[in-house]
Design a protein that fits this description.
heterodimer, A: alpha+beta, five-stranded mixed sheet, 9 helices, 53% helix, 19% strand, B: alpha/beta, five-stranded parallel sheet, 8 helices, 14 strands, 45% helix, globular
Chain lengths: 423, 225
């Protein structure tokens, strides 16, 4: 939920209460005003009618008024404690055809020695009508209020919150690389400026740390290669010396196998860190199909020995703009994996269209979540001599170009799919 | 054959020179770029093994210097950097091949022989081992002058064996030579076994002696001793 919506919800809740209370007060106020007004009107009528009676002494004048409005009847004597009384009454209205609430002012008067008992009446506003009116009015106001509030808030979120969304976008697209420190624009709102400053400082710190680490990894890897070469060469020479017993040969060989493994590991990690550091900038058009075919041709005897049946379904030729070395490495890892982890006999199916590559191969049956093989050093078979870095490299390359990559295991079919178009 | 090794790491230089000498090369050493450039200007070599990362400069300068002499000297680059740019730059200015550290001596030997064959004999040289004849240029194998049909990898394997005759070649080294280092050796030992036995069978059927010795747990040795 957006911050604005959150505050708006509270705001609307409170205003709903205020509107309800307002409605009640509104109603009471109306009631009082109408009451006072009717009483005044009745008194005005009283004054006027008394004047008329004084002038004409006849009741004919009043016949034009509805009997509901005024009723005058002669009486013998004015009661001793003559007082006007105001009361509410219900009279059946012929015109409306239903009982109607009236307020009546009753009094006795003596005019020109004639004595009258007079009842002045005024129809009251129906309570139901009044409540309905108030609710309707309040409703219209509330709807208008909400509409205006929403419009204003939308405008606010677009203008005042703009720098905030800009910062969020910048952070989510932030990549630690040679691009340098993040620079965010300054705004008139202090809070956002504080946020920008903090993020800029953080990104600068990350960049420094990142570069130190990058240099360290590269230097360490290069420095390691030379001693490794010396050790492996010396072991190789030792292997050639005569009068070595089988046991000795085996010891030397085991050592050199381990050295070779160490050196491959070192190289793979170096390449991984280079890819992740975005050190491959050149972009060329490469034909994925050609790369696959070359690699398959190079490994054709392995495919033959393992009795793997190969099906290529190139619906369309797949051309991609990327670094040629990375493209080569990507497909090398995929093809080698599909052979290495295949069963014997087994199958490999490769399909391409103009933006997608799908490779599936038979392999060991496993329940594991396939995506975990993208992590470093995760292997299907822990006893395997494999480094467990092949798919990490594949993933790192795909991430560099933001190619969506998926890996699924369905029974014993391992399927990798790369979508090149989204780049 | 006269070879110059330019390498600043003393121990590595020792390994390289003693190995090359044991292979019958006449071997000279240089430990810096300056030293290497001097030697090149004074003497002629059949091949130069040049490290790129020298303390006083880039080994690529050696290749540029060589070009001005228009000699038939081959160049094999040795580098600790496995970067494509370096590789392309080296091959572009005229190096014959490129080896990334760590490399094995038998691989170096095979590459060096290949360079020398191309440079000195315009690639038409026939490599002979007793009754077996191998023509690298056309990838043909003859036994007693009769052709033996071999696959590409079997050919590579045979040439590698002959180039490194009388040497113990571990399965590790053979895998690396045949498929490069991107395929892990342990997974491919069976493939090596299949290739070696196919090659042995084909050579035997053509009437050649079996020169391949299995060395239990390690690998093979191609020898007539």
């Amino acid at each position: 939920m957006k911050l604005l919506n959150k505050t708006n919800t509270y705001f609307l809740g409170v205003s709903l209460i205020i509107f309800c209370l307002g409605g009640i007060l509104f109603y009471l106020l109306f009631q009082i005003i109408i009451d006072t007004d009717i009483n005044n009107k009745l008194h005005e009528r009283k004054t006027y009618n008394l004047k008329q009676l004084a002038l004409s002494d006849s009741l004919v004048f009043f016949q034009k008024y509805s009997a509901n409005m005024v009723s005058i009847r002669p009486i013998k004597a004015v009661p001793v404690n003559n007082k006007e009384t105001i009361s509410d009454t219900v009279i059946f209205d012929d015109v409306e055809g239903k009982p109607v609430h009236y307020r009546q002012l009753a009094f006795a008067a003596s005019i020109n020695n004639h004595k009258y008992f007079i009842q002045e009446r005024r129809a009251l506003v129906e309570q139901k009508d009044l409540i309905e009116g108030v609710i309707l009015l309040e409703g219209i106001l509330f709807v208008a209020f909400v509409a205006i509030l929403t419009a204003v808030n939308n405008q606010l979120s677009r203008s005042i919150w703009r720098p905030f969304y800009y910062i969020v976008e910048k952070i989510s697209n932030y990549k630690v690389d040679l691009a340098g420190n993040m620079v965010l624009p300054k705004d008139s709102i202090d809070e956002f400026n504080e946020l920008s400053d903090a993020i800029e400082k953080m990104s600068a710190k990350i960049n420094i740390e990142f570069n130190i680490q990058k240099e360290f990894i590269e230097n360490a890897s290069h420095e390691i290669q030379t001693p490794l070469t010396i050790v492996s060469n010396k072991l190789e020479m030792l292997l050639q010396t005569s009068q070595m017993s089988d046991e000795q040969l085996n010891l030397v060989n085991t050592a050199s196998v381990a050295i070779a493994r160490l050196s491959r590991l070192n190289e793979a990690l170096l390449i991984l860190s280079k890819i992740e550091n975005r050190q491959f900038h050149k972009v060329e058009k490469v034909c994925i199909n050609d790369l696959i075919d070359h690699r398959l041709a190079d490994l054709s005897d392995l495919i033959l020995i393992k009795s793997i049946s190969l099906q290529r379904n190139y619906r369309q030729v797949l051309n991609v703009a990327m670094h040629p070395y990375l493209a080569e490495m990507l497909l090398e890892n995929l093809v080698v994996n599909s052979i290495k982890h295949n069963t014997s006999p087994g199958t490999i199916q490769i399909a391409t269209d103009h933006h997608r590559l799908e490779m599936s191969n038979t392999g060991s049956q496993m329940q594991a979540n396939a995506e975990k093989f993208f992590r470093r050093f995760v292997k299907g078979n822990p006893n395997s001599q494999s480094l467990g870095l092949g798919l990490s490299i594949v993933k790192a390359i795909c991430e560099t170009y933001m190619f969506p990559l998926s890996y699924q295991i369905d029974q014993n079919i391992h399927r990798i799919r790369i979508d090149f178009l989204a780049a | 054959m006269k070879v110059l090794v330019v390498e600043d790491e003393q121990e590595l230089l020792n390994s390289l020179t003693s190995y090359l000498k044991s292979e019958g090369y006449v071997c000279e050493e240089a430990t810096s770029l300056q030293h290497g450039l001097e030697k090149i200007s004074l003497y002629n070599y059949d091949c130069i093994l040049a490290d790129l990362g020298l303390p006083d400069g880039n080994g690529l300068q050696l290749i540029e210097q060589l070009k001005t002499k228009s000699s038939g000297t081959g160049v094999l680059i040795l580098s600790a950097r496995n970067s494509l740019e370096d590789k392309i730059a080296g091959l572009d200015i005229g190096a014959d091949d490129y080896l990334t550290k760590p490399f094995s001596l038998s691989e170096l030997n095979a590459r060096l022989r290949s360079i020398l064959r191309r440079r000195k004999f315009q690639g038409t040289r026939i490599v002979e081992f007793r009754e077996i004849q191998v023509i690298p240029e056309t990838m043909e194998v003859f036994v007693h002058h009769r052709t033996v049909p071999v696959t590409r990898k079997e050919f590579d394997l045979l040439l590698y064996f002959i180039s490194n005759k009388n040497k113990v070649l571990s399965k590790e080294l053979i895998v690396e030579h045949l498929w490069g280092d991107y395929i892990d050796s342990a997974d491919t030992y069976d493939f090596i076994y299949a290739h070696v036995s196919n090659l042995r069978k084909k050579l035997a059927e053509s009437g050649a002696n079996d020169y391949v010795r299995s060395i239990y747990g390690v690998g093979y040795k191609f020898t007539d001793l």
